[in-house]
């Protein structure tokens, strides 16, 4: 079964062709990071315009690299949310045109289900499993008892972990996006600051990173006021150690409570080397899987993989009234 995936939820324009849920025949991604860097974050209007400029190209390239025509495609899977509404609509409307013109069934896919199924491309899944979703907009622990069954165990009560990385990086003058540069500097610094680990010992599976972020920013401000030497490497190490301690400890707690067979990590922050190292060091009794780097950030291959299993489970497609949603509940039936 050939699935054409379409992803335009934020600042990547991507189209992919995936066979049977895990054989990636093509995965074309146009990133806008360099465009948004000067603004210190994604500008929605600019993102939408860039999607319009690149959408036809990525469709053409994805089919060309897969050596297929539209007549060969069995299903179109397109991200319908959550995300920037203007960006989402570019991909959705393009997918609708292809669906209508070539009589191909179409389904709307939840963006986070795509991040979760990025792991299936390389590793497969053994249930029940626990998914730690960590990105710029999400920090969640999800229990899966079977394919396309999502039970949210906990989530951030304020800032997502990726958002906290970006804000701390901005204060340290490290630019955007903050995650990769803090991760790199963290390898070179020392943990000289004992930053707090919010909610690490709470009785639930929720997260909070706003207080940690504020603590780091205030420490930086106070050191500037006292004209003390500030080493971004030490700040990065201390901040990353605090973040990863919380993420790993909460995951271990959920693993033990629900007796899962596998842990997968999903989302852009899954690329973080400190998180990867600590998860594998502290969890040794069951497998811990991370997607390949290319599937950590937003891409259409993960949407096609998720779309394949969504279609297999529910057995029906959407109609052409499918719309975009800036917010969308993962647990609600698609």
CATH architecture of the largest domain: 2-Layer Sandwich
Q: What Rg is obtained from the alpha carbons, in whole angstroms?
A: 20 Å
User: What's the helical proportion of residues?
Assistant: 40-55%
Shape: globular
What gap, in angstroms, lies between the N and C termini? 20 Å
Task: Please tally the β strands and state the result.
Answer: 10
Order of helices and strands, N to C?
A: EEEHHEHEHEEEHHHHEHEH
Per DSSP, the total helix count is: 10
Characterization of this structure:
The chain is α/β, with parallel strands linked by helices. It has two domains: 2-115 and 295-314, ATPase, nucleotide binding domain (Nucleotidyltransferase, domain 5), CATH 3.30.420.40; 126-286, ATPase, nucleotide binding domain (Nucleotidyltransferase, domain 5, 2-Layer Sandwich), CATH 3.30.420.40. It is 43% helix and 18% strand. It has helices at 33-36, 44-66, 85-102, 111-122, 161-171, 178-186, 210-225, 232-258, 273-282, 300-314; strands at 2-7, 12-19, 23-31, 75-81, 106-110, 129-134, 139-144, 151-155, 262-266, 288-289. A five-stranded mixed β-sheet has the order 3-2-1-4-5, sandwiched between helices. Strands 8-7-6-9-10 form a five-stranded mixed β-sheet, sandwiched between helices. A hairpin with a 4-residue loop joins strand 6 and strand 7 (139-144). Helix 4 packs across helix 10 (300-314) and helix 8 (232-258) crosses helix 9 (273-282). The mean pLDDT is 96.
């Amino acid at each position: 079964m050939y699935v054409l995936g379409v992803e335009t939820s934020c600042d990547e324009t991507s189209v992919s062709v995936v066979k049977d849920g895990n054989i990636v025949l093509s995965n074309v991604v146009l990133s806008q990071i360099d465009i948004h860097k000067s603004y210190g974050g994604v500008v929605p209007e600019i993102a939408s315009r860039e999607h319009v400029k690149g959408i036809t190209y990525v469709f053409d390239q994805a089919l060309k690299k897969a050596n297929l025509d539209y007549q060969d495609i069995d299903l179109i899977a397109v991200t319908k949310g959550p995300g920037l509404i203007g960006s989402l609509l570019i991909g959705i409307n393009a997918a609708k045109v292809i669906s209508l013109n070539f009589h191909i069934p179409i389904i709307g896919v939840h963006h986070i289900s795509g991040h979760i199924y990025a792991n299936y491309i390389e590793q497969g899944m053994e249930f029940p499993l626990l998914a730690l979703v960590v990105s710029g907009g999400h920090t969640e622990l999800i229990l899966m008892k079977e394919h396309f069954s999502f039970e949210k165990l906990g989530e951030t009560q304020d800032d997502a972990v990726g958002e906290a990385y970006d804000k701390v990086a901005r204060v340290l003058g490290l630019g955007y996006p903050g995650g990769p540069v803090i991760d790199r500097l963290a390898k070179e610094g020392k943990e000289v600051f004992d930053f707090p680990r919010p909610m690490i010992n709470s009785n639930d599976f929720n997260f909070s990173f706003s207080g940690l972020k504020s603590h780091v920013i205030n420490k930086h401000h106070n050191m500037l006021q006292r004209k003390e030497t500030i080493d971004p490497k030490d700040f990065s190490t201390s901040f990353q150690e605090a973040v990863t301690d919380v993420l790993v400890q909460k995951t271990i707690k959920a693993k033990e409570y629900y007796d899962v067979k596998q842990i997968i990590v999903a989302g852009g922050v899954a690329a973080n080397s400190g998180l990867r190292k600590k998860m594998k060091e502290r969890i040794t009794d069951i497998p811990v899987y991370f997607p390949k780097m290319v599937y950590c950030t937003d891409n259409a291959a993960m949407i096609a993989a998720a779309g394949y299993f969504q279609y297999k489970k529910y057995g029906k497609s959407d109609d052409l009234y499918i719309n975009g949603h800036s917010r969308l509940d993962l647990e609600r039936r698609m």
